[in-house]
Structures are given as C-alpha cells and as structure tokens.
C-alpha cells in the first residue's frame, strides 16, 4: 500500500507537467482573484504580514476574501520568483491533488484510493484552470485532520481544524463543532482512559494557536479582533436582508450538490458520478465514522444556506466530493454481490462488511 501511495503522488506530479504543457496558462484578466491574491502574497513576502490591507482601501481595512491562509501559502513563491515566473509552479496544483488522494487512500484503503483518483480527475484536473488555488491548500489538509483524529493527536487535530477554517470559511462551523468531538469521544459511555482530558485540551490549544492569526490580523489592521473574514458574512446578510430569496436558493444549492447543477445554471451539465457518490454515502452512512458524518452534514448545511452556487460551483464543492469516497471504506464489493445474489448470502455479506471497515469508531 505504501508503494501505491507514493506512486500516486509521482503520477499526479507527472500529470501536472502534462496538463501544464498541454493547456498552458490562461492569461490573467483585471479583477481576477489570482491577481489580488498575488498582490497580497507579494506584500507579505516583502515584510508586511497584514497583506497591505491598511493601505489598500479595503472596506474598513478588513480581510475581504473567503480565504485567509491561502496568500500566506503563496508568499514564499512571491519571495523566490518574479510573478512572471509563477506559471512554472502551477504544476504544484497537481502535486497537491496527489498528496490529497494518497492521504485519503491511506485513511480508507484501496477502494478509496481508486475512487479518490477518479474524482480528482473528473472534478479537478479536467476542469480547473492551471493555477495554484486555495483548494490546493485545503485538500491535503482534510486527510491530515482525519488521520490526526484517528491517531488521537490532539494538538495536530486542533491545528488542522483551524487551518481548514482559515483556508475556507465555509468550514468554520465544522471546525468548531469538531472541537467538541474529543469531548464526546471521552464521554460516550465507556470507561475514561488516561489522557482523554489531555487530548481535549491539546486540541483546543492547537486550534487557538492557529486560528488566532485571523483575529490578531484584524485587530492589528482595524483595531477590533474580528473572528471571521468579511466574506464570511455573505450568508448572514442574505438571510437577514432577503429571507425568501435565501429559502429559494436552498433548493437550487441542494440540486447542485446532488449532481444536477443545470437547475442553477444551464451552462452546467449533469455530473453523473455525483449521484453515485451520494448513493455510496447512503449505503455506508450507518457504518461511517461519526467525524466523517459530521463533516458531510455540516458541509452540506452551510453550502445549502449560502447564496446560490454560481460560477465557482465546482470550487465550492470540491472539498466535499473529494471526501465522499471515504464511505467506500465501509463497503466490500464482494459482500454486496453475495448479499444481493442470494438470501443466504446476506448474512455472509454483512460479515464481510464488518471485516472490511477501515475507519474505526474512534475517528
């Protein structure tokens, strides 16, 4: 399995070279997100850790993007390379995919490795522009968080939760809710073990150490420690100012996430593999780890409550579709065949499902 995971990373690094050479790099247009992120990264690389917001005329001087940590990922490249050379590091987008798929495969096993590779190809590699995007920071962090939970590494777990929340603000609700997960695990009807309370404390400290970067930044620039970026209030504004439009958008967003984005935007085609992924989720739901189920529920809830998913639909949902193959870790194809072929095979199939669980209830 270790060789397969290493080969996955190498394969995606090679595919990155192929895709960059085949597609080239699209020219930047005025107002392109990449341009503004690049400007922030250059400012950070030259010593202004605030990203220059105090001097940019941003509304109230506040951080206005939905991602906070991402420009700091770009800052080392801004320090090492002129912006005209950045297309040479765009292939790291594919290295990021390789690391993500390998991490998911390590977490869930062979079936997850195969499915995650397919999702990465169908939902990212074939459609994404050749850039180094905020998803390329988020995706490798996701298996890290789940692996830290399984290994009971409280500090790493908390820090990872903070990092994904700072990378994508729509994951803040999950990050905060998941902080209570060590508490729930410590109290869930079993004899408390030595170190349970320490795990809870370390998770909280890890989260606070990393997430405090945002309110510290906001306090430094504006004089008030805002805990959420300005873009993070979009859903709140929608529900307060136009609740009927908000209710209307929920149905459209759910259809989009189900794999029928054409209901939202006719320019989109049906994503036939998304309904199949959701069938996989339904089948493996009861046996899936609690933390994985919490992630899916809160991700869907937050995205359903946001304004209508539009041009960035795939980008909004890639943090979800890449994780859904984890539900395959609970299933055995052989067991399913037995269960559906004969009534006598049902018991045997369930037994095989029991043996095939890769994620234990400790996650």
Commentary on this structure:
It is a single chain. The two termini are 21 Å apart. The chain is mainly α. The chain is 65% helix and 0% strand. The model is unreliable at 333-363 (pLDDT under 50). The longest helix is centred in the first third of the chain and has 22 residues, at 2-23. The protein is globular.
Distance between the termini: 21 Å
User: Nearest-angstrom radius of gyration?
Assistant: 21 Å
Q: Percent of residues in helical segments?
A: 55-70%
The class by helix and strand makeup works out as mainly alpha
Overall outline: globular
Stretches where pLDDT is under 50 for at least 5 consecutive residues are: 333-363
The DSSP helix count reads 19
Strand content: under 5%
The count of strands amounts to: 0
What's the arrangement of secondary structure elements?
Layout: H1 2-23, H2 33-45, H3 53-56, H4 70-80, H5 92-108, H6 110-125, H7 135-150, H8 154-167, H9 172-179, H10 181-187, H11 196-211, H12 213-222, H13 234-241, H14 243-258, H15 273-284, H16 290-305, H17 313-321, H18 333-341, H19 345-355
Helix pairs in contact: 1-5, 2-4, 5-6, 5-7, 7-8, 8-9, 8-11, 9-16, 10-11, 13-14, 14-16, 18-19
Outline of this structure?
The protein has about 375 residues and is mainly α. It has helices at about 1-25, 35-45, 55, 70-80, 90-110, 110-125, 135-150, 155-165, 170-180, 180-185, 195-210, 215-220, 235-240, 245-260, 275-285, 290-305, 315-320, 335-340, 345-355.
Features:
363 residues, mainly alpha, 19 helices, 65% helix, globular, disordered C terminus
